[in-house]
Amino acid sequence: MENLYILIIFLVIGMIAPRILLAVVPKMVISVPSRKKLGIKVHHLHYGILLLLASYLFTAPTEQLFYMIQGFGLGLVLDVFIPSLYVNSTRKEEMISYRKYLIHTLVFTLIFSASVLFTQF
């Protein structure tokens, strides 16, 4: 039960941390350096997914740390989930992107699935 509380607390922190950063340092949040360097639209959703993946790939020193990472990563993902449904783009643009990056998506999905599967044994 204690781990559930840890997960929920860090989920909430993960959801509000981007909003706090936006209020405190809006210039840094609006012009994210990784977007310019990588040339892709990195959102905290992506960082959250990477944290979830990392929590399965690497063994945390304590069970509480595992749930902290899981909660924070999930919070980052959930914070962007609903707004991402309202991003302005056409269906044609979306379909082009889906086709163009299908292999990338499959590779990421296989790595993520394998990491979860292999950490269960």
How many alpha or pi helices? Answer: 7
What share of residues are in beta strands?
A: under 5%
How many domains? The number is: 2
Please provide the ordered H/E string of secondary-structure elements. HHHHHHH
Major β-sheet annotation: none
Q: What's the end-to-end separation, in Å?
A: 23 Å
- Low-confidence runs (pLDDT<50, min 5 residues)? none
Radius of gyration: 16 Å
Write down the overall mean pLDDT: 83
- Helix proportion of residues, in percent? over 70%
Architecture blueprint of SSEs:
Layout: H1 2-24, H2 26-30, H3 33-38, H4 44-57, H5 63-84, H6 91-100, H7 102-119
Helix pairs in contact: 1-5, 4-5
Short structural description:
By secondary structure, the protein is mainly α.
What does this protein look like?
The chain is mainly alpha-helical and 121 residues long. The protein folds into two domains: 2-86, no CATH class; 88-121. The protein is built from seven helices and no strands. It has helices at residues 2-24, 26-30, 33-38, 44-57, 63-84, 91-100, 102-119. Helix 1 crosses helix 5 and helix 4 (44-57) runs antiparallel to helix 5 (63-84). The longest helix has 23 residues, at 2-24. The model has no long low-confidence stretch (mean pLDDT 83).
